[in-house]
Write a structure and sequence with these properties.
- Helix 1 packs antiparallel against helix 2.
- The chain is built from four helices and no strands.
- The longest helix is centred in the middle third of the chain and has 24 residues.
- Helices cover about 65% and strands about 0% of the residues.
- It has about 120 residues and is mainly alpha-helical.
- It has one domain.
- The two termini are about 25 Å apart.
Length: about 120
Amino acid sequence: MAGVRIFGAHRTWEDWITMLIGVAIALSPWPAQPVYLGCPTTTGVVWNAMMVGAVVAALGIVELVDLHRWEQVGEISCGVWLIISPLLFDYTGEGVLQYWHYGLGAAVILLAVIELWQDWNLN
């Protein structure tokens, strides 16, 4: 068992999970959209979620193809942006979408930190 590396090997399932989280972020405004019909920033909220989700999914794809540290840093940045988005777009008291964005942003950050820790010596 000397050849088994637990923390020193890149795992592709983490990249697939990152891509799925990106899709979930992009689709997150639609289940909660009836709550936001009166909100003046509805379009900004939807575009923000779509763009952040697309970037997270794209970073997962790039990370699956070629491994670099900047991809995890980009994922952490997207996760932080998603967490502060309810404050910036002023939908903190509007419904469940803020909690979805807090949770999905935290999941992106957690997964990126784990990947960064695991892949530190691989690239």
